[in-house]
Design goal:
2 copies of one chain form a homodimer.
Chain A lengths: L3 H9 L1 H12 L11 H14 L3 E6 L6 E7 L4 E7 L19 E3 L2 E3 L3 H21 L6 E7 L7 H9 L1 H4 L3 E4 L11 E3 L1 E2 L1 E10 L5 E2 L9 H9 L23 H8 L5 H8 L10 H10 L2 E10 L8 E2 L2 E10 L5 H14 L6 E8 L2 E2 L5 H14 L4 E3 L8 H5 L8 E3 L15 E3 H20 L24 E2 L2
Parallel strand pairs in A: 3-6, 3-7, 7-18, 8-17
Antiparallel strand pairs in A: 1-2, 1-20, 2-6, 4-5, 5-19, 9-16, 10-14, 10-15, 11-13, 12-14
Helix pairs in contact in A: 1-4, 1-14, 2-4, 4-14, 12-14
Chain lengths: 479, 479
């Protein structure tokens, strides 16, 4: 089947698609701040309706709207995940232009959320439009699940999907995380590491004290530092008692896939401006650690006075935020349990552990229908085979969408970003060309999802014939 | 000599003195923020002129004005130090009323700077006024040095005094730091620990990264934590190589004075809401540590994202602010040198040390004329002997004022605060009654400075007869 007409449609509408993305990027939908969330949810829903997607919007408690949308037909059903919220912008002064200006410079669209993941959301909808305009009705049923709490650990999504598991029954899932690497090879992920996000707290005097008391009043900042220092070694190895014994060995299939992956070490080092990697790793060891290594990252520490001006205080409280990325067979529960025991045994019973959120890991096979459709389409559009990550080192609420049925729904994840997209940092951006290429890629994926037969002997939902009904919800109707 | 008239004057003007203090406290003179500094300097200067103090105002470079004032006469000259700037307010939400509202509740005046040290400044000026109105001309020459950079490490003051050493030649110095303890015993200090204030920095990738890179990209937050953890032990002992060998043993005279000091351990623990002291110390050991122990306090750490909302980043930079309080014979130079070596030898050459400021320690004898005048006056006004601290555990620019001549000018320091004043924290306050008592105390001090003879065999400036001329300054004239 020829995509000449499809591609021509995309090229002819490049400007309008890009403007749609800019419009969305100009809405400052930082979930952590919470303003403007309903407006952007309505905008997204309207843009879905405009191209004939039937939608409903749901709210769980006071959470941000979840937009459910359905279009197409045919025996196969696929879930398309997306989110309209973005990460906090961090220090404004680190940005070259306003994080919500969505300016295009040198072909790059700069905005918080451009790469993660408004570009993907707009590209997926644009592909549906282009497909309908050039081929007609979609040959598969697509079920969009668009949430607004990706940056908050997706609490609404977890409740919504638990209550509406029927809706998530699908032959596969298209996820929105991905980019090309420093050598311009697109990366496709078949799963994600899990995550558990914790806050550790140490407490001292009732309020910040004059630091003249430093010789005799216990300092919670020192307490926290001493406790943290027992969790990893100076070489960056996680040293929590019993931690490594909970990690599953890497399977033969995964080892096989790992061998095909190469990290552009020099390019990444330039990109990140770092002198070397943890433990001076390189080559296959570095790849293995990146994709299958568990992590314990200090994401933030705050205590005392750190603004301009000398203020010599003995702090009242000290806190650190840690995220652990989970690999097979680690779970959030195991990590928190081990950490608690580890700290207790070393006399740090006073350090409070607060669980801020978690997501289980997800992993699926390269042989699923959805994986094959994405891999083949990518090879066509990019002119070279993509890199396949058996598990992306990032995390997301994949479990909420693909883990509610048994066996879990297979997934393939890809996105519009590139190696310089900096999705959680300042100057987040995507290249407009990548955005347009992504639309073309998605058009082909839609086609292949219907046409191709999975080569896997078992495809869990191969025989699911009917489109699931719109959810009968415990979830509250839209406000 | 009877102070009946003097005390009556103070009582009759209690309201007006208190209002003067409230007015000054309503000026938000946070040196670190820098707005409104010239206005408050002018207000202070005018209030000095209004009671007949001859003043001049100086600026060093773009620093905040230093107000020099002179009044009285007679053979003896004493320097009175004060400052009109205040500490940053910290989290506004921690305050019960606005930090610059200067409201009085239950007899307590709440304001940033009330205890440190606008209460002292206004009390000293009020005492001069009351003395002149009731006794006439002051029997000693007082030289006021009022600066606006106490919170910044007093850079202007150091330059000003170095350039105008003649002006600082005096028979003694009255300092403005002090309070009564939890048992309502006033504390008089004859010196201060030194201080060096440092920032440690660790650097990672060029900007905050998505924490999915945590398995392979070095994290500066972990780097900083690991480096910090080598500086003190979990028990709170400073473990910098060679540190303890630079600390002088406590002299017999000081040991003697220490024996007279008792900390109200239970009261302070209640006040600070802490369960115990560092290393579970108590009694004489606790007192000794408090007054003669060196400190290394983490005053603040910042790295990554610590605001509301989950943001899983691998930080670009991590920084910690440390203050070391210096005891005999430690100097800032020694501490920084030892710390650098200590970190280097452990492989932390990448950790940057930035010196933010320092002040040498100062220590003088309880037998000096100024010490005796303050001690005796305090005993009279409070009806019980004060506690004498051979060295206050806090620090200040005493070296700038009292260290420019040789031997150093003896000092005595006392203030209007009490155990609940919380001078660097939220809800800083003084009791109005303490403020008025302090005025009465200062009146008696002025009198005794002229009348009493030092019992010390040597009083360094006993024979200095003339009032030093107003400075011929390299320092720029007032703007």
């Amino acid at each position: 089947m020829s995509f000449i007409k499809f591609d021509r449609y995309v090229d002819r509408h490049a400007r309008s698609f890009t403007e749609r993305l800019q419009n969305l990027c100009r809405m400052p939908s930082v979930a952590a701040r919470g303003s403007g969330m309903r407006v952007i949810a309505e905008t997204v829903e309207q843009s879905m309706q405009r191209i004939g997607i039937g939608t409903r919007s749901f709210r769980v408690g006071s959470g941000y709207p979840i937009i459910y949308g359905e279009c197409g037909g045919g025996p196969k059903t696929f879930v398309v995940y997306g989110h309209y919220d973005v990460q906090p912008v961090g220090q404004l002064s680190d940005w070259s232009s306003g994080p919500f200006a969505a300016t295009i410079e040198d072909g790059k669209l700069y905005a918080r959320g451009a790469a993660n993941s408004k570009g993907d959301l707009v590209a997926r909808l644009a592909a549906v439009e282009a497909y309908q305009k050039t081929f007609g009705k979609l040959p598969v049923t697509l079920r969009f699940i668009i949430e607004g709490e990706d940056g908050l650990g997706s609490p609404s999504l977890y409740r919504f999907t638990a209550e509406n598991a029927e809706l998530l029954k699908a032959d596969g899932c298209l996820w929105d995380e991905g980019s090309s690497d420093t050598k311009e090879t697109p990366i496709i992920s078949l799963g994600f590491k899990g995550i558990t996000f914790l806050e550790l707290r140490a407490f001292g005097p009732r309020s910040d004290l004059h630091s003249k008391w430093g010789a005799i009043v216990p300092n919670p900042a020192w307490r926290l530092v001493q406790a943290l220092a027992t969790i990893t070694s100076p070489k960056g190895v996680i040293t929590i008692d019993g931690f490594s014994s909970h990690i599953a060995p890497i399977s033969d299939e995964d080892s096989e896939v790992l061998r095909a992956i190469e990290l552009d070490e020099a390019g990444l080092k330039r990109e990140f401006r770092i002198g070397g990697w943890v433990r001076a790793m390189k080559g296959p060891m570095l790849v293995k650690e990146h994709i299958f290594g568990p992590t314990c990252t200090i994401c933030g520490i705050h205590t005392g006075h750190t603004e301009a001006g000398a203020k010599t205080v003995l702090p009242s409280m000290a806190m650190a935020r840690l995220d652990f990325r989970l690999v097979p067979d680690l779970t959030a529960q195991i990590v928190v349990g081990l950490l608690r025991e580890h700290l207790d045994i070393r006399g740090f019973k006073d350090i409070e552990i607060i669980e801020l959120g978690s997501a289980p890991l997800a992993k699926s096979s390269a042989k699923s229908r959805v994986a094959r459709a994405v891999i083949e389409s990518t090879a066509e559009v990019y002119g070279k085979p993509p890199l396949i990550y058996p598990m992306d080192p990032s995390s997301g609420p994949v479990g909420a969408v693909c883990g509610v049925s048994e066996p879990p729904t297979p997934i393939a994840s890809f996105g519009t970003g590139y190696a310089g997209s900096n999705p959680h940092g300042p100057n987040e951006n995507i290249r407009v060309e990548d955005f347009l290429k992504s639309i073309k890629l998605i058009g082909r994926v839609i086609h292949k999802l219907a046409a191709s037969k999975s080569k896997a002997a078992i495809d869990p939902h191969e025989d699911s014939k009917s489109t699931a009904p719109l959810p009968k919800v415990k979830t509250e109707p839209r406000i």
